[in-house]
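@channel sequence for tomorrow's demo:
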Amino acid sequence: MESPDQPTLFRRVRALLRDQEGEGISPAPGPKPMGEERLRVTLDRSESGAPAAGHAVRDLFSTDEIFQRLVATADEEFVRSDRLLFLSGLAAGLSIGLSFVARAAITAETGSAILGNLLYPAGFLLIVLGRYQLFTENTLTPVTLVLTRIASVPKLLHLWAVVLTANVAGAALAAMAFAWTPLFDPDTAEIARGFAAHGLEFSSSALFWKGLMAGWIVASMVWLNHAARETTARLLIVMVLMTLIPSADLFHCIIGSCEALYLVFQGAAPLGEAARFFGAVVLGNTVGGVLLVGILNFAQTRRQRFPDRDCDDLALTWREFMFGQGAGRPRVASTNGESATGVEVASESESLLDQPVMGTEDAEVSDETIEEPPPAG
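structure tokens (generated this afternoon):
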């Protein structure tokens, strides 16, 4: 589903305002006239149906509305091809190396671990604002469609596998560059080795629990980013929450893999030890993101999570949900006039939620409305 460009939206708004003027509508208090209601619907909802403004308070979303915005993001991720997912994940893995570099360089330059930790979110800023695919973010957004049985469990695991593989590949390339080139000066290299060796000192159980807390923080960041309306607010959310991970001595699986592989490429640690570290942390990150945030936040939303769509027409059967590779599709009319539900894998141009939004006929602006009125006289 393609979003209209900005000029198109402006044309719709101008047309609606012109309708109001032509009908003699004034801003007097009382029930909103039809033209004003149509204008509000056009501005307050995106083309996907996700709210662009809160219902009760325009700049404050309810839990249900945040969930709907998350679903729109998840829908966009599910309909991407594996090639696009992998390339985006690769970019995220490379970008996350910036956190490793920034933290090590600032700590070496200033001698202050606190100042170094403040630069830990650098890679996350690139990923969040650049809309790259990071595995720990994907533990929350796609799960929303799985919890509502619109996407199947195998489809979610496939998406996770593609993104995680790409993230680790990007982190490995970054670690190789750090280890085999003179990018780090001796002081920075020593600090970087200390960061990496510190993580390998913990037992697998300790790494799991530290990873669980870090996964909860990252997934909470994703939830709050969908609650925010401004880029400045999202920047502050990333900076504050991601600084907690190194400050609390927690571990993120992708940054941690970059650090561990840095030691492996330098010959200072065996690959098996790096794999043990990665396995424990990625499991903890996943549990923290899915259980503590995904399911708990999902439980706060009401039964009617898609107010403009019929969830029964989108939901998969339990067999399809557990074992299928498909995604829920809206019920369509068959050739004999009967209702039928098809299950198929959406292409990049489709949407798992691509169902006519109910009750928005009045909000549509026709081509005739957009045309300029003939000159008077």
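heads up for whoever presents: The first helix runs from residue 6 to 22.
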